[in-house]
From TrEMBL:
Taxonomic superkingdom: Bacteria
TM regions (residue ranges): none
InterPro entries: Cro/C1-type_HTH, Lambda_DNA-bd_dom_sf
Gene3D superfamilies: lambda repressor-like DNA-binding domains
Organism: Pseudoalteromonas aurantia 208
Name of this protein: HTH cro/C1-type domain-containing protein
Residues in HTH cro/C1-type domain copies: 9-52
Amino acid sequence: MSTEFSHRLKKIRVHFDKSQIEFAEFLDIPVPSYRKYESGDREPTLNVIQKVFSKKELKPHCHWLITGEEFTVDAELSSVNAHFKHITGKEEYEQAFINETVKSMQMFGYLDWIEINTDKIDLDACGKLLLKDLEPIIEGHYGSYKKSKTG
C-alpha cells in the first residue's frame, strides 16, 4: 500500500467521527496495529482489508480507499461497456462471460471467501453453468434496458 492509503484510511475514520481506538474496535483489530496502518508504518494484511470491506457502513468508501479514485455507477458502466464493446456475437459473449466468471472465482479464492480445489472443480464449467442459469435474467434486463433507451 502507500502513505496515500494511510491518509485515506484516516479520512474515512474522521468522516465517521471516530477516534483511532473506536475505529479499531469497530473493525475488530488491535489498536496498536490500526495506529500503524493509519500512520503508514505498517501495511494492513488482507485479513484487515477484508474486515474493512465487510462493514456495511464502509462499503461505499472501499474503492476509494484502495485506489484513491471516486467510484460512480456511471463511470463503472462506461468502463465495462468500453471493455466489452468489441463483443459482437453470442459465442464471444459467452466466452467473455465465462472468462470474467473464472476471474471472479479466482479472486474469491484469493480473498479466502471460497476454497478452490482445482482437482475437483473446473472453473470454466462453473462459468458455463452460471451463464446458463443467469442468461434469462441478463437477457430480460438487457432487453428491458434497451427498450427504455430506445423507447
